[in-house]
Amino acid sequence: DVLRRNLETSLRRLQTDCIDILQFHGGDARTLQQAGLIDLLQSFRQQGKIRWLGISSALPHLPDLLQLAVFDAVQVPWSCLAPQHSDCIIQAAAQGCGLIIRGGIAQGGPDAEIQRPQLNDIWQQAALDDLLPPATSPAQFILRCTLSNPLHHSVIVGTASLQHLAENVAAVAAGPLPAEILQQVTLRVAAVLAQPAPAAYS
To answer: Lower CB count within 10 Å: N or C terminus of the chain?
Structure first.
């Protein structure tokens, strides 16, 4: 039983009797149920070996996983440029789940060293530069959008340099964005995402 061995190894290495949160990555609800993994994970919690049970997932599998109603925390991708999991976040929050957001800074936005053309296109088509507060970088703006959602409890942010770290800390210190700006971001990005995809040429 690999999962049980891994848990026991972690408990031993951490020199503790209980892990605060065990987060399961991937899989679909049907497979996890048929393989007995859901029952096994719940048994760990019942035995007091873990306090909270988490799942890291995304569309298309996440809605069915949430229907199981067994998870205490959910890690899900979301940013103002990629809001496709918004309904899942609302569903998880309604179940009382803690929300862990990954991708909440959209890989650094349009100024990132590693460019993400699809995300950059959304930024440009939505004309989000027009909404930037003074002395705010696109990455800081995106992070503040993520932090402005009261359903988001924790945000995973990759940091490649001290400069990135300082910018992220400044974004957090600046606090949530004004409601009118958040509304504009939502409307503009939704309009871009609603556009039909360009036809493929052979």
So the answer is: C
Q: Are residues 62 and 78 in the same domain?
A: no
107 φψ region: left (φ > 0), alpha (ψ -120 to 50), beta (else): left
Residues 180 and 121 in one domain: yes
Q: What is the pTM of this model?
A: 0.89
Instruction: Go through 8-36 and write b for each residue having 16 or more CB atoms within 10 A of its CB, e for each that does not.
Output: eeeeeeeeeeebeebbbeebebeebeeee
Where residue 172 sits, what CATH number does that domain have?
Answer: 3.20.20.100
Supply 47's token pair.
């035995």
Q: Is residue 89 part of a domain?
A: no
**Are residues 128 and 56 located together in one domain of the fold?**
no
Structure-block tokens of residue 59: 């569309």
What is the span of the domain harbouring residue 154?
74-82+96-194
pLDDT in 10s for each residue of the chain, 202 residues: 788 999 999 999 999 999 999 999 988 999 999 889 999 999 999 999 999 999 999 999 999 999 999 999 999 999 999 999 999 999 999 999 999 999 998 777 777 666 678 889 999 999 999 999 999 999 999 999 999 999 999 999 988 889 889 999 999 999 999 999 999 999 999 999 998 866 555 4
